[in-house]
Write a structure and sequence with these properties.
The protein is of the alpha+beta class. It has helices spanning 11-23, 43-71, 74-87, 89-98, 102-117, 126-129, 139-145, 164-173, 178-181, 185-202, 207-211, 216-232, 265-273, and strands spanning 153-156, 160-163, 245-252, 255-262, 280-286, 293-298, 301-306. It has a three-stranded antiparallel β-sheet with strand order 3-4-5. A two-stranded antiparallel sheet has the order 1-2.
Protein backbone atom coordinates (compact mmCIF):
# COMPACT_ATOMS: atom_id res chain seq x y z
CA UNK A 1 0.00 0.00 0.00
CA UNK A 2 1.29 3.40 -0.86
CA UNK A 3 1.79 5.61 2.17
CA UNK A 4 0.56 8.47 0.01
CA UNK A 5 -2.98 7.49 0.79
CA UNK A 6 -2.42 8.00 4.51
CA UNK A 7 -1.59 11.68 4.44
CA UNK A 8 -4.13 14.27 5.59
CA UNK A 9 -5.88 16.96 3.68
CA UNK A 10 -6.38 14.86 0.56
CA UNK A 11 -9.78 16.06 -0.71
CA UNK A 12 -9.06 14.32 -4.02
CA UNK A 13 -9.38 10.95 -2.28
CA UNK A 14 -12.84 11.80 -0.95
CA UNK A 15 -13.84 13.09 -4.39
CA UNK A 16 -12.62 9.93 -6.09
CA UNK A 17 -14.54 7.75 -3.63
CA UNK A 18 -17.68 9.82 -4.20
CA UNK A 19 -17.32 9.49 -7.97
CA UNK A 20 -16.72 5.75 -7.67
CA UNK A 21 -19.84 5.21 -5.59
CA UNK A 22 -22.01 7.48 -7.75
CA UNK A 23 -21.05 5.66 -10.94
CA UNK A 24 -21.62 2.13 -9.69
CA UNK A 25 -25.17 2.18 -10.98
CA UNK A 26 -23.89 2.21 -14.58
CA UNK A 27 -20.69 0.31 -13.91
CA UNK A 28 -21.80 -3.20 -14.72
CA UNK A 29 -20.08 -5.64 -17.04
CA UNK A 30 -20.63 -5.30 -20.81
CA UNK A 31 -23.96 -6.63 -22.18
CA UNK A 32 -23.98 -10.36 -22.81
CA UNK A 33 -21.03 -10.99 -20.54
CA UNK A 34 -20.66 -12.04 -16.94
CA UNK A 35 -18.08 -10.74 -14.49
CA UNK A 36 -14.88 -12.77 -14.70
CA UNK A 37 -14.47 -12.54 -10.93
CA UNK A 38 -17.43 -12.53 -8.53
CA UNK A 39 -15.64 -9.96 -6.38
CA UNK A 40 -15.56 -7.55 -9.32
CA UNK A 41 -19.20 -6.70 -10.14
CA UNK A 42 -18.19 -3.17 -11.22
CA UNK A 43 -15.74 -4.47 -13.81
CA UNK A 44 -16.82 -2.15 -16.62
CA UNK A 45 -16.25 0.95 -14.49
CA UNK A 46 -13.04 -0.46 -13.02
CA UNK A 47 -11.61 -1.23 -16.46
CA UNK A 48 -12.25 2.35 -17.55
CA UNK A 49 -10.41 3.72 -14.52
CA UNK A 50 -7.64 1.16 -14.99
CA UNK A 51 -7.17 2.28 -18.61
CA UNK A 52 -6.83 5.89 -17.43
CA UNK A 53 -4.37 4.90 -14.69
CA UNK A 54 -2.39 2.81 -17.17
CA UNK A 55 -1.94 5.77 -19.51
CA UNK A 56 -0.80 7.95 -16.62
CA UNK A 57 1.55 5.21 -15.47
CA UNK A 58 3.18 4.57 -18.84
CA UNK A 59 3.47 8.26 -19.79
CA UNK A 60 4.44 9.75 -16.42
CA UNK A 61 4.99 7.39 -13.50
CA UNK A 62 7.18 4.79 -15.21
CA UNK A 63 9.53 7.31 -16.90
CA UNK A 64 9.92 9.24 -13.64
CA UNK A 65 10.58 6.06 -11.64
CA UNK A 66 13.04 4.82 -14.26
CA UNK A 67 14.91 8.14 -14.21
CA UNK A 68 14.94 8.04 -10.40
CA UNK A 69 16.51 4.57 -10.45
CA UNK A 70 19.18 5.61 -12.94
CA UNK A 71 20.02 8.97 -11.38
CA UNK A 72 19.86 8.08 -7.69
CA UNK A 73 22.60 5.82 -6.28
CA UNK A 74 21.30 2.64 -4.64
CA UNK A 75 22.39 3.65 -1.09
CA UNK A 76 20.43 6.90 -1.41
CA UNK A 77 17.35 5.10 -2.76
CA UNK A 78 17.53 2.66 0.14
CA UNK A 79 17.86 5.53 2.58
CA UNK A 80 14.81 7.36 1.24
CA UNK A 81 12.86 4.08 1.20
CA UNK A 82 13.74 3.42 4.83
CA UNK A 83 12.91 7.01 5.82
CA UNK A 84 9.46 6.86 4.21
CA UNK A 85 8.79 3.48 5.77
CA UNK A 86 9.75 4.77 9.20
CA UNK A 87 7.21 7.60 8.90
CA UNK A 88 4.51 4.97 8.45
CA UNK A 89 5.46 2.94 11.53
CA UNK A 90 3.03 4.74 13.91
CA UNK A 91 0.12 3.70 11.71
CA UNK A 92 1.37 0.12 11.74
CA UNK A 93 1.66 0.20 15.56
CA UNK A 94 -1.90 1.50 15.96
CA UNK A 95 -3.25 -1.25 13.70
CA UNK A 96 -1.14 -3.87 15.51
CA UNK A 97 -2.95 -2.94 18.71
CA UNK A 98 -6.38 -2.73 17.07
CA UNK A 99 -5.88 -6.28 15.75
CA UNK A 100 -4.84 -7.56 19.16
CA UNK A 101 -1.23 -8.20 18.09
CA UNK A 102 0.24 -6.81 21.31
CA UNK A 103 3.66 -8.48 21.03
CA UNK A 104 4.03 -7.35 17.42
CA UNK A 105 2.90 -3.86 18.43
CA UNK A 106 5.63 -3.68 21.09
CA UNK A 107 8.20 -4.94 18.58
CA UNK A 108 7.15 -2.33 16.03
CA UNK A 109 7.25 0.37 18.71
CA UNK A 110 10.82 -0.66 19.52
CA UNK A 111 11.63 -0.67 15.83
CA UNK A 112 10.29 2.87 15.42
CA UNK A 113 12.25 4.16 18.44
CA UNK A 114 15.52 2.52 17.36
CA UNK A 115 15.34 3.66 13.75
CA UNK A 116 14.18 7.17 14.67
CA UNK A 117 17.19 7.64 16.97
CA UNK A 118 20.14 5.40 16.16
CA UNK A 119 18.95 5.06 12.56
CA UNK A 120 18.90 8.83 12.00
CA UNK A 121 15.13 9.30 11.62
CA UNK A 122 14.90 6.00 9.77
CA UNK A 123 17.52 6.56 7.08
CA UNK A 124 19.25 3.39 8.30
CA UNK A 125 17.23 0.29 9.20
CA UNK A 126 19.20 -0.49 12.35
CA UNK A 127 16.27 -2.33 13.96
CA UNK A 128 16.36 -5.03 11.29
CA UNK A 129 19.82 -6.05 12.45
CA UNK A 130 18.46 -6.34 15.99
CA UNK A 131 15.83 -8.84 14.87
CA UNK A 132 12.98 -6.29 14.69
CA UNK A 133 11.61 -7.01 11.23
CA UNK A 134 9.23 -4.61 9.49
CA UNK A 135 5.51 -5.42 9.45
CA UNK A 136 2.84 -4.07 7.14
CA UNK A 137 -0.51 -3.38 8.83
CA UNK A 138 -3.20 -0.92 7.83
CA UNK A 139 -6.80 -0.14 8.71
CA UNK A 140 -8.08 -2.19 5.78
CA UNK A 141 -6.49 -5.28 7.31
CA UNK A 142 -7.80 -4.31 10.74
CA UNK A 143 -11.35 -4.03 9.42
CA UNK A 144 -10.94 -7.47 7.83
CA UNK A 145 -9.80 -8.93 11.17
CA UNK A 146 -12.88 -7.36 12.77
CA UNK A 147 -15.07 -9.20 10.27
CA UNK A 148 -15.94 -6.33 7.92
CA UNK A 149 -16.56 -7.76 4.41
CA UNK A 150 -14.19 -6.60 1.70
CA UNK A 151 -16.98 -5.44 -0.58
CA UNK A 152 -16.49 -5.25 -4.37
CA UNK A 153 -13.12 -4.75 -5.99
CA UNK A 154 -12.59 -1.08 -6.83
CA UNK A 155 -9.99 0.71 -8.95
CA UNK A 156 -9.32 4.23 -7.68
CA UNK A 157 -8.05 6.97 -9.98
CA UNK A 158 -4.27 7.34 -9.55
CA UNK A 159 -4.24 5.22 -6.36
CA UNK A 160 -5.02 2.02 -8.25
CA UNK A 161 -6.45 -1.32 -7.05
CA UNK A 162 -8.47 -1.48 -3.86
CA UNK A 163 -11.73 -2.78 -2.42
CA UNK A 164 -14.54 -0.82 -0.80
CA UNK A 165 -13.23 -1.86 2.62
CA UNK A 166 -9.62 -0.98 1.80
CA UNK A 167 -10.67 2.38 0.31
CA UNK A 168 -12.41 3.25 3.56
CA UNK A 169 -9.35 2.05 5.43
CA UNK A 170 -7.16 4.44 3.45
CA UNK A 171 -9.25 7.34 4.71
CA UNK A 172 -9.01 6.11 8.31
CA UNK A 173 -5.25 5.63 8.03
CA UNK A 174 -4.92 9.38 7.62
CA UNK A 175 -5.65 9.81 11.32
CA UNK A 176 -3.33 7.07 12.59
CA UNK A 177 -0.12 8.61 11.25
CA UNK A 178 0.73 11.69 13.38
CA UNK A 179 4.26 12.27 11.96
CA UNK A 180 2.86 12.80 8.49
CA UNK A 181 -0.29 14.55 9.63
CA UNK A 182 1.66 17.16 11.58
CA UNK A 183 4.29 17.89 8.93
CA UNK A 184 4.47 21.40 7.46
CA UNK A 185 2.71 21.34 4.08
CA UNK A 186 5.87 21.71 1.99
CA UNK A 187 7.53 18.73 3.70
CA UNK A 188 4.35 16.67 3.56
CA UNK A 189 3.97 17.34 -0.16
CA UNK A 190 7.62 16.46 -0.77
CA UNK A 191 7.12 13.22 1.13
CA UNK A 192 4.03 12.45 -0.94
CA UNK A 193 5.94 12.87 -4.20
CA UNK A 194 8.96 10.89 -3.02
CA UNK A 195 6.75 8.14 -1.62
CA UNK A 196 4.94 7.83 -4.94
CA UNK A 197 8.20 7.63 -6.88
CA UNK A 198 9.72 5.15 -4.42
CA UNK A 199 6.60 2.96 -4.54
CA UNK A 200 6.51 2.93 -8.36
CA UNK A 201 10.23 2.22 -8.56
CA UNK A 202 9.69 -0.80 -6.33
CA UNK A 203 7.30 -2.30 -8.90
CA UNK A 204 9.44 -1.72 -11.99
CA UNK A 205 10.41 -5.40 -12.14
CA UNK A 206 6.72 -6.30 -12.45
CA UNK A 207 6.31 -4.28 -15.67
CA UNK A 208 7.19 -7.19 -17.93
CA UNK A 209 4.80 -9.61 -16.23
CA UNK A 210 1.94 -7.10 -16.37
CA UNK A 211 2.53 -5.97 -19.96
CA UNK A 212 2.85 -9.54 -21.27
CA UNK A 213 -0.27 -10.78 -19.49
CA UNK A 214 -3.18 -11.81 -21.72
CA UNK A 215 -5.45 -9.49 -19.70
CA UNK A 216 -3.34 -7.01 -17.69
CA UNK A 217 -6.41 -5.69 -15.86
CA UNK A 218 -7.41 -9.14 -14.59
CA UNK A 219 -3.79 -9.94 -13.81
CA UNK A 220 -3.38 -6.85 -11.59
CA UNK A 221 -6.78 -7.40 -9.96
CA UNK A 222 -6.09 -11.04 -9.09
CA UNK A 223 -2.58 -10.22 -7.87
CA UNK A 224 -3.93 -7.46 -5.63
CA UNK A 225 -6.72 -9.57 -4.15
CA UNK A 226 -4.39 -12.50 -3.56
CA UNK A 227 -1.79 -10.27 -1.94
CA UNK A 228 -4.40 -8.68 0.35
CA UNK A 229 -5.63 -12.10 1.45
CA UNK A 230 -2.01 -13.04 2.11
CA UNK A 231 -1.46 -9.97 4.30
CA UNK A 232 -4.78 -10.24 6.14
CA UNK A 233 -4.11 -13.90 6.98
CA UNK A 234 -0.46 -13.17 7.90
CA UNK A 235 0.74 -15.49 5.17
CA UNK A 236 -1.59 -18.35 6.09
CA UNK A 237 -3.63 -18.53 2.91
CA UNK A 238 -6.32 -21.21 2.69
CA UNK A 239 -4.98 -24.47 1.28
CA UNK A 240 -7.57 -24.30 -1.51
CA UNK A 241 -5.74 -21.28 -2.94
CA UNK A 242 -2.46 -23.15 -3.37
CA UNK A 243 -1.63 -23.35 -7.10
CA UNK A 244 -0.86 -26.61 -8.91
CA UNK A 245 2.82 -27.51 -9.18
CA UNK A 246 4.86 -29.72 -11.49
CA UNK A 247 7.70 -31.55 -9.73
CA UNK A 248 11.03 -32.82 -10.98
CA UNK A 249 12.95 -35.30 -8.80
CA UNK A 250 16.61 -36.25 -9.01
CA UNK A 251 18.95 -38.19 -6.75
CA UNK A 252 22.04 -36.33 -5.54
CA UNK A 253 24.39 -37.32 -2.71
CA UNK A 254 21.89 -39.58 -0.99
CA UNK A 255 18.96 -37.15 -1.06
CA UNK A 256 16.09 -36.46 -3.40
CA UNK A 257 16.28 -32.98 -4.92
CA UNK A 258 12.77 -31.75 -5.64
CA UNK A 259 12.22 -28.78 -7.94
CA UNK A 260 8.64 -27.45 -7.93
CA UNK A 261 7.25 -25.01 -10.46
CA UNK A 262 3.74 -23.58 -10.79
CA UNK A 263 2.07 -25.40 -13.68
CA UNK A 264 0.09 -22.54 -15.24
CA UNK A 265 2.42 -19.86 -16.72
CA UNK A 266 -0.16 -17.13 -16.02
CA UNK A 267 -0.49 -18.19 -12.38
CA UNK A 268 3.31 -18.39 -12.16
CA UNK A 269 3.57 -14.73 -13.21
CA UNK A 270 0.90 -13.79 -10.67
CA UNK A 271 2.66 -15.57 -7.79
CA UNK A 272 5.89 -13.80 -8.74
CA UNK A 273 4.19 -10.40 -8.36
CA UNK A 274 2.02 -11.22 -5.33
CA UNK A 275 4.01 -14.01 -3.68
CA UNK A 276 1.47 -15.79 -1.51
CA UNK A 277 3.13 -18.97 -2.80
CA UNK A 278 6.49 -19.36 -4.56
CA UNK A 279 6.38 -19.49 -8.37
CA UNK A 280 9.07 -22.16 -8.10
CA UNK A 281 11.31 -23.64 -5.44
CA UNK A 282 13.92 -26.34 -4.79
CA UNK A 283 14.15 -28.49 -1.68
CA UNK A 284 15.97 -31.64 -0.56
CA UNK A 285 14.27 -34.71 0.90
CA UNK A 286 16.45 -37.27 2.79
CA UNK A 287 16.05 -40.84 1.54
CA UNK A 288 14.91 -41.97 4.98
CA UNK A 289 11.81 -39.77 4.66
CA UNK A 290 8.70 -40.98 2.83
CA UNK A 291 9.04 -40.14 -0.82
CA UNK A 292 5.28 -39.66 -1.02
CA UNK A 293 5.52 -36.13 0.33
CA UNK A 294 7.59 -33.45 1.97
CA UNK A 295 7.39 -30.04 3.58
CA UNK A 296 8.89 -26.84 2.24
CA UNK A 297 9.22 -23.65 4.29
CA UNK A 298 8.36 -20.43 2.48
CA UNK A 299 7.80 -16.95 3.93
CA UNK A 300 7.04 -18.10 7.50
CA UNK A 301 4.73 -20.90 6.49
CA UNK A 302 4.97 -24.54 5.42
CA UNK A 303 3.83 -25.93 2.08
CA UNK A 304 2.48 -29.46 2.57
CA UNK A 305 3.27 -31.19 -0.73
CA UNK A 306 1.99 -34.66 -1.66
CA UNK A 307 3.85 -35.99 -4.68
CA UNK A 308 2.04 -38.01 -7.36
CA UNK A 309 2.35 -41.77 -6.89
CA UNK A 310 4.26 -42.03 -10.14
CA UNK A 311 6.99 -39.87 -8.65
CA UNK A 312 7.70 -42.47 -5.98
Amino acid sequence: MSEASRCPRRPNLYLMLLIAVSLTGCAGVPPGKTASNPQDPWENFNRAVYALNDRVDKNIARPVASTYQRAMPAPARNGFHNLIGNLGEPSTIVNDMLQGKLIQGLQDTGRFIVNSTVGLLGWFDVAKHLGLEKHDEDLGQTLAVWGVPSGPYLVLPVLGPSTVRDAGGRVGDIYTDPPKRDMPPRYRNAELVLDGIDTRAGFMEANGAIDSAYDPYAFVRDAYLQNRRYKINDGNNPESEMPDYDYELSLQDGTFVVHGRVTDPQVRKLTAVAPAFPPEFTTRVPLRDPVAGFRHRYRDKTLEVILPKAAG
